[in-house]
């Protein structure tokens, strides 16, 4: 796979929510816009490790950590057809791009968040991960 993944890119991905994982589900129920928050290519074997955050139109529950996506950022990210949306920062899917059953090598990104907004997302993700972040491995 020659595709390069960068933080802030929005891809279509069948995100598996932690509540689905806890119920024993192994597949996301639908493909949804998902934000690449971390993309690290291993020097050892050349594979790309990804941390992916779900984008949702459902307002987050009070016990969840999320950032509302401003209109300008939604347009940049190719999400302008969504009225209001949030990026969830308190859970993530981990996948390896080159080994993924869910990422197509030639699929185009939907768009990309600005560097400034990604810095806010990364800070919120880091804080949530330190507190109670949930990781769902997708590389079976």
What does this structure look like?
By secondary structure, the protein is of the alpha+beta class. It contains three helices and eight strands; from the N terminus they run βαβββαβββαβ. It has helices at 18-22, 71-76, 115-131; strands at 9-13, 32-41, 48-56, 66-68, 86-88, 91-96, 111-112, 134-137. Strands 1, 2, 3, 4, 5, 6, 7 and 8 form an eight-stranded mixed β-sheet that branches. Strand 2 (32-41) and strand 3 form a beta hairpin. It is globular and about 40 Å long.
Report the biggest beta sheet as strand number plus sense, adding barrel if it closes.
8 strands, mixed
In sequence order, what are the helices and strands, one letter per element?
EHEEEHEEEHE
Which range does the strand content fall in?
A: 25-35%
- Estimated radius of gyration: 14 Å
**What is the count of DSSP helices, taking H or I runs of 4+ residues?**
3
Distance between the first and last residues' Cα: 18 Å
Structural class: alpha+beta
Q: Total strand count, please?
A: 8
| Global geometry | globular
Mean of residue pLDDT values:
90
Stretches where pLDDT falls below 50 for ≥5 residues? none
Q: What percent of the residues sit in helical stretches (DSSP H or I)?
A: 10-25%
């Amino acid at each position: 796979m020659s595709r390069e993944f960068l933080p802030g890119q929005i891809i279509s991905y069948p995100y598996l929510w932690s509540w689905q994982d806890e119920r024993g589900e192994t597949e996301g129920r639908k493909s949804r816009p998902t934000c690449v928050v971390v993309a690290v290519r291993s020097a050892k074997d050349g594979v790309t490790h990804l941390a992916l955050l779900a984008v949702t139109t459902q307002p987050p529950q009070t016990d969840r950590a999320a950032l509302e996506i401003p209109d300008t950022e939604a347009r940049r990210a190719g999400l302008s057809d969504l009225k209001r949306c949030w990026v969830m920062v308190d859970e993530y899917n981990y996948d390896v791009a080159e080994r993924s059953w869910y990422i197509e090598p030639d699929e185009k990104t939907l768009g990309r968040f600005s560097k400034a907004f990604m810095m806010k997302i990364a800070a919120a993700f880091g804080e949530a991960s330190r507190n109670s972040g949930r990781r769902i491995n997708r590389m079976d």
